[in-house]
Amino acid sequence: MSPLKIKKGANSHSAYNLRPNFSDVQETHTLAVIVDNEAGVLARVIGLFAGRGYNIESLTVAEIDHSGKLSRITVVTTGTPQAIEQIKAQLGRIVPVHRVNDLTVDGPSVERELALFKVEGTGEKRVEALRLADIFRANVVDSTLESFVFELTGPTDKIDAFADLMRPLGLAELARTGVAALSRGA
Amino acid sequence: MAQKMTGAKMVVQALADQGVDTVFGYPGGAVLPIYDEIFQQNGIRHVLARHEQGAVHAAEGYARSSGKPGVCLVTSGPGATNAVTGLTDALMDSIPIVVLTGQVPTFMIGSDAFQEADTVGITRPCTKHNWLVKETSKLSGTIHEAFHVATTGRPGPVLVDIPKDVQFATDYYTPPAKANLGHYQPQVKGDLETITELVEAIEKAERPIFYTGGGVINSGPAATQLLRELVEATGFPITSTLMGLGCYPASGDKWLGMLGMHGLYEANMSMHGCDLMINIGARFDDRITGVLDAFSPGSRKAHIDIDPSSINKVIRVDMPIVGDVGHVLEDLLKVWKARGRKTNSGAVQKWWGQINEWRAVDCLKFEQKGKVIKPQYALSRLEALTKKHDRYICTEVGQHQMWAAQYLNFEDPNRWMTSGGLGTMGYGFPASIGVQMAHPDALVINVAGEASWLMNMQEMGTAMQYRLPVKQFILNNERLGMVRQWQELLHGERYSESWSESLPDFVKLAEAFGAKGILCSDPDTLDDAIMEMITHDGPVIFDCLVTKHENCFPMIPSGKAHNQMLMGEADTQGAIDAKGSVLV
Predict the structure, then answer these.
(1) What pLDDT, in 10s, does the model give residues A64-112?
(2) Which of B74, B346, B366, B430 has the fewest CB neighbours in a 10 Å radius?
(3) Could you tell me where in chain B the CATH 3.40.50.970 domains are found?
(4) Where are the alpha helices (DSSP H) in B67-138?
(5) DSSP helix/strand/coil, B276
(6) CA–CA separation, A185 vs A126, rounded Å?
(7) Would an 8 Å CB–CB cutoff place B299 in contact with chain A?
């Protein structure tokens, strides 16, 4: 394997074989980008996505090492396999980027998102919301007689599912952090 | 204990410590402290351009012809925004330049101050990296890091934005040896396993071709030497992109000429028909590949590039090698020699037989008849009359640029300065000024079209002030020739806004600046006129009146493949379908 993790040799002896290699299949990948925490670094990363027409589905960023001044940007993106490879290579050449990990291909990983749901309602709907929150193990972090704020942590699809359930029960506002992710194991 | 110094003095000190001898620039409010320091020293020459864009292109010309980074100093706001075209040009062509911009004082940033612009924001996508320096203590270290980033890995433009209060404040200077260069250290050695795989492919290849680009030249003289050794030892044919001209001598018998949209028939046909393509420091640009579906079917492809993002960007390759061309070629030669210097010489011989048939088509032939100078003839004569000189050629952008690439021969690298990726009209004249600054005794010629040349004609003042004997060889067809050619082929011969109306009298224009002007419209007097230009000790504007409606051939029309070239006027009817006309 080359440093690019491109399969070598294989079957692409001709440009006519490009189709299978450059497939139109859209994949979703979670990338962890470790960067110097300096002014404008986030602008460089999202400017790259905007400038080259790549998708951003979710983006989280925070400092992870204060003394080393490093931040971790977790970005969930979709594209063809070729586009994903380009995104990683393009991210890798931004000067303050230390490394780019593709958590989707590098092995198993855990992904979590935190979300806050404001659900407004009274009577049976209010009871039902609380019951579902219990099933999903969401915490109540604020409560009035007409509303709850639930806090829920989990993978994106769990948050989506809970949001779908809350919608008919009076979901008034929703705030999500976007995905944070780490590879499993040592 | 070291003495404290002002930020402005640090700038000059850092440039001196980086070995900078020439700075191209234009003063203004936000860089006055630095200009004050420049005034009080003699180590660094400052060349006053007449427009910031000219200053950046001059720095590019200096860098490309010398292999050293070019340096540019401009003020905040309009100074910085005028530099944007040059920065983008340098980014596209991977040219190492360091641009220093003044900025309003830190405490005024964000207040819409006079001549304030968000320079790092504006230039973020058109630099390799940029910095806003908010503390004088970090200024010198940042400048050293800027030089490091500009010149290592895939070279490119960098920008350091320096607020005026940072220039006035004092702090300790950091010498280059003590500067923190960050973690940026691109990989230069290629993967040996893949290199060995490429050597195996070289041993077996029946129809190989070297497809080289600007990366060879950027890698430095050692890479050029190694490439030449490899080509001679294997006997494989070699072609090059516009950016790579000179990495292999045009007089070499393995040379096929430039490839691509206006490349030579034999080069494009060989690319189409090869079974092993060895891409060395080129990037499968769309001007090279033609339609991707039909690009070189039936070839295995190797790609040597220092930038991982260049690999598999447009063309999927079988043997990707990330590394510096010089280092990879050194390893490649070592492995190939150790394995017994084998090639499939019988098959390669046959391949040459085929190539020679393509060569025999003589795709660049033209006939100079009548009393009007053909542009191809003008360049052929320029080639013949200047080839014995230590000659540096710049160009603007358009038909003349392609003809220059086709009809001028380059024996050495760093002799050919042209805006390849961005295609910047107005590049050539200021670039020629930068080249002449780097090579005071060389013959520097800017092959231009009249329309491109007018875009930065203000630099005549610079050429005169510094007595730079740059020769402006203008192929004047009173048209935006390439635009006109596309309108003819793609837009029903509706020549919308593509002629040069109200042109100046170029001879009088030259004289107005105190330079020499030469007008030539007669093929019979062309040689004498060119000799007069070469021998004149000073800047010359050469107004060469050429055929008005000449088209540039060969041409791979949009949406077509390498083996579907238009060879001349007879081929042009219906050559480009509706789908192709959408492509640029």
Answers:
(1) 999 999 999 999 999 999 999 999 999 999 999 999 999 999 989 999 9
(2) B346
(3) 4-178, 375-545
(4) 78-82, 84-92, 119-123
(5) strand
(6) 41
(7) yes
pLDDT of res. B571: 76
Size of interface A-B (CB pairs under 8 A): 95
Cα separation of A114 and B279, whole Å?
Answer: 48
Check if CATH label 3.40.50.1220 holds for domain B192-360. yes
N-term to C-term CA, chain B: 61
- In this complex, do A13 and B321 lie within 8 Å of one another by their Cβ atoms? no
Which residue does chain A place closest to B186, by CA atoms?
A93
d(CA B408, CA B416): 10
One-letter amino acid for residue B136 of the chain: T
Mean pLDDT of all residues in B253-259:
97
Q: Do domains A24-102 and A109-183 have the same CATH topology?
A: yes
Kindly write down the DSSP assignment for every residue of B155-206, as one continuous string. Answer: --EEEEEEEHHHHHSEEEPPPGGG---TT-----SPPHHHHHHHHHHHHH-S
Do the beta carbons of residue B80 and residue B454 sit within 8 Å? no
DSSP category for residue B566? B
Q: Which residues have CB under 8 Å from B538's CB, separation 6+?
A: B467, B469, B515, B516
* Per-residue pLDDT at B557: 87
Test B121 with A92 for CB contact under 8 angstroms. no
> According to DSSP H, which parts of B444-557 are helical?
450-455, 460-465, 481-490, 506-512, 526-535
Look up the ipTM and state it. Answer: 0.91
Please give the Cα distance from B154 to B216 (Å, whole number).
11
Start-to-end Cα distance in chain A: 22
Q: For residue A157, what are the contacts with CB-CB under 8 A and spacing of at least 6?
A: none
Kindly name the residue from B9, B128, B164, B471 that is annotated as catalytic.
B164
B342 touches chain A (CB under 8 A): no
| Assigned CATH class of A109-183 | alpha beta
**Above 90 in pLDDT, residue B584?**
no
Residue where the block lists tokens 């025999």: B360
Tell me the CA distances in angstroms from B405 to A26, B82, B320, B354, B400, one per residue in order.
Answer: 42, 28, 29, 24, 9
Q: How far apart are CA B487 and CA A35, in angstroms?
A: 48
Widest distance between CA atoms in chain B: 77
Candidate CATH numbers 3.40.50.970, 3.40.350.10, 3.40.50.150, 3.40.50.2300; the one for domain B4-178: 3.40.50.970
Min distance A176 CA to chain B CA atoms (Å): 28
Q: What is the mean pLDDT of chain B?
A: 96
Q: How far apart are CA B565 and CA B554, in angstroms?
A: 6
Q: Judge whether A20 is closer than 8 Å to chain B, CB to CB.
A: no
Cβ–Cβ of A40/B293 closer than 8 Å? no
Alpha-carbon torsion, ordered B37, B42, B43, B48, to 10 deg = 70
Place of tokens 């204990």: B1
Q: Are B26 and B75 in contact (CB under 8 A)?
A: yes
Query: Which tens digit of pLDDT belongs to each residue from A162-172?
Result: 999 999 999 99
Q: In the structure, what pLDDT confidence band is assigned to residue B575 with cuts at 50, 70 and 90?
A: low
Smallest Cα–Cα separation from B244: which of B275, B274, B278, B290?
Answer: B278
Question: Could you tell me if B202 and B345 are in contact, meaning their C-beta atoms sit under 8 angstroms apart?
Answer: no
Three-state SS sequence of B430-468:
HHHHHHHHHCCCCEEEEEEEHHHHHHCHHHHHHHHHCCC
> What are the CB-based long-range contacts (under 8 Å, 24+) for B334-340?
B335/B192, B335/B195, B335/B196, B335/B199, B336/B199, B336/B202, B336/B203, B336/B230, B336/B233, B336/B234, B339/B199, B339/B203
Q: Which option is the CATH number for A24-102: 3.30.70.260, 3.40.1180.10, 1.10.3080.10, 3.30.70.20?
A: 3.30.70.260
Contact between B554 and B263 (Cβ < 8 Å)? yes
Query: Which CATH superfamily, name and number, covers B375-545?
Result: Thiamin diphosphate (ThDP)-binding fold, Pyr/PP domains (3.40.50.970)
Q: Does B506 qualify as catalytic in the annotation?
A: no
